[in-house]
Write a structure and sequence with these properties.
The protein is an alpha+beta fold. It contains two helices and nine strands; from the N terminus they run H-E-E-E-E-E-H-E-E-E-E. Strand 1 (about 20) and strand 2 (about 25) form a beta hairpin. The radius of gyration is 18 Å and the shape is elongated.
Amino acid sequence: MSIQNVLDGICQYFGGPFDAQTRTYRSSLVDGVGVVRRAWAKRDNHADYFNGMPPGTRTGSQIVVHIAHQRETRKAVGGATSGVKRVTYTVVLHCYIRSNTPFAEDAQDDVYALRDNLVARLRQDRTLGGAVFQAGEAVDGELSWIEFEYGQAETKDELTKNYLSMQFPVTEYVFA
């Protein structure tokens, strides 16, 4: 499996089917997510944050799925080329949040709710819909993790912007 296949599978798991026209995933099953992307957009469209949400939704987001690191470990098993390769990717969900709430405190609560929704989705299927062997889980007695970073809210013209990142390892095995 290629890194592009892993990235596409993770994007589909969090964002739904790929829309070739917009190069995005626009049918997220995660409450509060309008669009999932596999790369940063050239143009930031405010409507994408609220894509598919009911009119009047106060807070929306878009996610950029980024594979920030990759490591391959190998274990030889009989013969010159036979063996198992474990590929571990560090995945970062960069969540960009836009909120029209009257109070920035309510927008911050929506950031925490988004975090809870993303964790719930991650826990539904450790293979992320078959994209990887497992995500955010320990392998071979190692410790695993899911890590979050919260940005500082910025307000201007009654719009609150915020940032949340969710980082976790995913593992796949290659048998040769």
